[in-house]
Amino acid sequence: MTTTRPAIVASGLRKRYGDKLALDGLDLEVAEGSVLGLLGPNGAGKTTAVSILTTLLRPDGGRAEVAGFDVATQAAQVRTRIGLTGQTDAIDEILTGRQNLVMFGRLHHLSPRAARKRADELLEQFGLTEAADRQAKGYSGGMKRRLDLAVSFVTAPKVLFLDEPTTGQDPRNRMEVWSVVRTLVAGGTTVLLTTHYLDEADQLADRISVVDRGRVIADGTPNELKSRLGASQVDLVLRDERQLDEATEIVARVSGATPDVDRERRRVSAPVHDRVASLTDVLAGLQAAAVAVEDVALRQPTLDDVFMQLTGTRAESDDPAADTTEVAA
Ligand SMILES: Nc1ncnc2c1ncn2[C@@H]1O[C@H](COP(=O)(O)OP(=O)(O)OP(=O)(O)O)[C@@H](O)[C@H]1O
Ligand SMILES: [Mg+2]
C-alpha cells in the first residue's frame, strides 16, 4: 500500500433510473485521511454516488475505487473497509440505544468489555446517555438519527460515508456530530459526507465538490470556493419596487457580481468579499441615489446563493418542499 493513493476515486460515473439520469459523468478524488464534502441540492445525485461507492448499487458506466479496491469487481474487499450512515436507519428499534451499540461492537469483534466501553463513550458524545436504556423505538427522530450515526462510529473504518449526517439536528447536535467526525479523521479515517449545508462543508471538509444534476460543477477547498463566491451575502429589501433596477445597479457595482433579484419580495442580494466595507459602500450609494431601504442584512451564503453564482439559476430540485428548506447560517 502506498500512502499517496487516494482513498476514493470515481471517474465518469453514470447511473440512470428509467428516463431519469441520476449521475452524468461524476468524477471525485479524495485523499487518504481527508474529508470531502459533496454539496448539492435535492436530487443532485449525492445518495446515488454514495450507494455506488459503498457497493450497494452498480453504475451503468464509469468506475470507482475505494480503499484501493474496485467497487464493482472487489465489492467484498471494499465492504470490510468502509462504514456507511445513510438516510435510512440501521438501528434495531426493539433494543435500547446501549444494546444497539454493544451489539454492533460485538458484531465487529470487540470484546464484551470493549464493546460496553465504546458504547458508553458514544452515548456520551452523541448526547444519548440519559436515553441509553430506553428502547430506540421511543426515541425522537433526531435521537434515532444520532444513534444511527453513533453505530457507524463504533469501529473506525478506513473510509466512512456519511449521507447528510446532520439533517434534522439542532445546532448543538450538529456540532457534536462535527466533533466526532473530526476525532475520527484525526485517527486517519477518510470521510465523504453529503450535505445541503454550505456551513457544514465549510466546517468539516478539506475539499468540497459541488454537485448538480449528476455531475461536479465546481470543486476546491472551502476557502477557494468562498473566494470565488464571496464570503458573505448582502441582502437588501426596498420600500418601493420601482427602485429595484437602480438598487441592483448599485449592488452590482460594489460587489462586482451579478445580483440575484427577487421582484416580488423587492429583494436584491449579492456576494461580497469585504463585509463591512461593501455594506457601507452599498448604503452610501443607495442614499446618494435616494433609494429607500426597508431592510438590510449581511449573512452567510446559502446553498442557493452558491448555485446562483455557479449556474446563474436557482438550485433545481425534484422535491417541492426543498424550496422552503432553511439553510442554517
Ligand atoms: N430508486 C430510484 N428510482 C428512480 N429514481 C431515482 C431513484 N433513486 C434516485 N432517483 C432519482 O435520481 C436523482 C438523484 O437522486 P439522489 O437520491 O441520488 O439525489 P440526492 O442528491 O441524494 O438528493 P437528496 O439531497 O434529496 O438526498 C433524483 O432525480 C432522484 O429522483
Ligand atoms: Mg440523498
From TrEMBL:
<keyword id="KW-0813">Transport</keyword>
<keyword id="KW-1003">Cell membrane</keyword>
<keyword id="KW-0547">Nucleotide-binding</keyword>
<dbReference type="InterPro" id="IPR005894">
    <property type="entry name" value="DrrA"/>
</dbReference>
<dbReference type="InterPro" id="IPR003593">
    <property type="entry name" value="AAA+_ATPase"/>
</dbReference>
<protein>
    <submittedName>
        <fullName>ATP-binding cassette domain-containing protein</fullName>
    </submittedName>
</protein>
<dbReference type="Pfam" id="PF13732">
    <property type="entry name" value="DrrA1-3_C"/>
</dbReference>
<keyword id="KW-0067">ATP-binding</keyword>
<keyword id="KW-1278">Translocase</keyword>
<keyword id="KW-0046">Antibiotic resistance</keyword>
<dbReference type="InterPro" id="IPR003439">
    <property type="entry name" value="ABC_transporter-like_ATP-bd"/>
</dbReference>
<dbReference type="InterPro" id="IPR025302">
    <property type="entry name" value="DrrA1/2-like_C"/>
</dbReference>
<dbReference type="InterPro" id="IPR017871">
    <property type="entry name" value="ABC_transporter-like_CS"/>
</dbReference>
<dbReference type="Pfam" id="PF00005">
    <property type="entry name" value="ABC_tran"/>
</dbReference>
<dbReference type="InterPro" id="IPR027417">
    <property type="entry name" value="P-loop_NTPase"/>
</dbReference>
<comment type="similarity">
    <text>Belongs to the ABC transporter superfamily. Drug exporter-1 (DrugE1) (TC 3.A.1.105) family.</text>
</comment>
<dbReference type="GO" id="GO:0005524">
    <property type="term" value="F:ATP binding"/>
</dbReference>
<keyword id="KW-0472">Membrane</keyword>
<dbReference type="InterPro" id="IPR050763">
    <property type="entry name" value="ABC_transporter_ATP-binding"/>
</dbReference>
<feature type="domain" description="ABC transporter">
    <location>
        <begin position="8"/>
        <end position="238"/>
    </location>
</feature>
